Here is the input.
Amino acid sequence: MNPNAPHCRAAENHETGDMADQETSKNETPDSDLKGHACIQSYLNTLDGSPGVYRMLDAQNRVLYVGKARNLKKRVSSYAKPSGHSSRIARMISETTSMMFLTTRTETEALLLEQNLIKQLKPKFNVLLRDDKSFPNILVAKNHGFPQIKKHRGAKREKGDYYGPFASAGAVNRTLNQLQKVFLLRNCTDATFETRSRPCLLYQIKRCSAPCVGYISEGDYGALVQDAERFLSGRSTHIQEQLAQQMQTASEEMEFERAAALRDRIRALTQVQAAQGINPKSVPEADIVALHLDHGQACVQVFFIRANQNWGNRDYYPKTANAAEPEILEAFLGQFYGDKEPPRQIILSHGIDDQDLMEELLSEKAGRKVELVVPQRGEKMELVAGATRNARESLARKMSETATQGKLLQGLAEAFDLDAPPHRIEVYDNSHIQGTNAVGGMIVAGAEGFLRNQYRKFNIRGDDLTPGDDFGMMKEVLTRRFKRLLKEDPDRKTESWPDLLLIDGGAGQVSAVAEIMAELGVEDIAMVGVAKGVDRDAGKEEFHRRGKRPFALKHNDPVLYFVQRLRDEAHRFAIGTHRAKRAKSQMKSPLDEVGGIGPKRKKALLLHFGSAKAVGRANLADLKAVEGVSAAMAQTIYDHFHEGDGQKP
Here is the structure.
């Protein structure tokens, strides 16, 4: 490197992730305040042809763009040219005041590091995937003699066979529902299974074979499990033929009730296959990824094909930063499969620039070959055409909804005298019953409607609060929310800061919230209290702002309906969170408070005595008789329930 080369303002170098020990950082101290092309040009003498990742930063040290390069010097030199750029790239270059570089051993490492940095930093000129939820699977648990079939999401730690991914929880539930009709497998927990003394309702409606009470042998149940796994693996033809033969035999032997049950199972199996819609013969395992771009807005449709069956689809709306199709699709693939296992084949609607590199990265991640395909004919082309049509229709609906939402936000700004339509609205509500199981809820809305992945719940933990003190609860919620926001983003560089707060309440609540915000030093955020108004009727809401008279909107004003929806959503979320907390507390057992009692010992004690109350009444000798409970543990349990009562063992 040339230490005397002119450079623009340097940026602090942050090494990211597990790649840090494999990288060499390149960043020089500036000698002048250059900007744009001149700034980028000043770095060229410090670079060589190594692969790596570069970052462009603005005057506030915010990351504008993260990119990877096979040859850093060659890639950066392309930005130093004063012409030949798209409007997006030209704007990005004009805002650049510093750059950062990280070299890697290989280009594959550079691609992986680039995607990690994009996810972490969310630069405004990169394509960003805004929804990266995990996908559910079907799990056939194998830790019991009678395996359970159930929905599973998250790390695959439980022993058993996993089938998926499915596009949504709804797709899994529909398939499980039909599989229960066909294969009569249990979905109850092991604890429920062990405590049953008679068949449950699922047996009565022919959804389970009741292994819990011995209505089916372990061998016969195992055969049903094998059939279910064959179906989930795409080998359903043999199952249908076998069921048809069994039905014919039962009919010939005049076992008409059994024949009718088999007929119902065949019908259910046919319904599963019909509901799947697309069942490609030539594609056993693939993701179909189709992109439609319109006026800078994009929709990516992903169809999941497993075992020659369609296991659902999901649409995504990445932030495109006005990029072209190949760049959008490449960025989408890198971010989408960042925490998901890729299938053997990914069928694309558009080609990407670094296809060989992406294949290498995904193959390395999966531990087997992953192929990217852009079909030109045949069944795969038909699959892509169908996915593209879905993407086009989904984007049209999304753009229509966004336009409507934009009008509502504009109306909201006019009604509440805001400087501009709010980009982020936060609505707060509390829920409790006489102060017990108190929770606070925050919902978020913006130009794209409700942003459910940004909802937050707050377990009220203030010990000094008077039960039912709504002011105190709101103070705790807002204090925790904005203290964390000030800690994570004190300069307000991200979109996490709200433009408008909606509070459920009148002038008193608004004044209390204003005082809280003043204490925190964030007084510039607009806030409005939504009071029920006369007779607490919907449509007669009054709006309160600090220092101004309350007012109401016309009964048929769309903005009024919009505010009602926001308030009702916050109420729904807070109540749902409260109910979940209350249900959890009701399920809590006195045994949970005994030190050293884990799930296995708890289960053994409940099975032996029948209830936690009976455990508390048991004498020491009876406690010692429980399998897995030592003499010392029996003494601990006994002392816990009889402490201070003077009772002898």
User: Anything to note?
Assistant: The mean pLDDT is 83. The first strand starts at residue 24 and ends at 26. The radius of gyration is 31 Å.
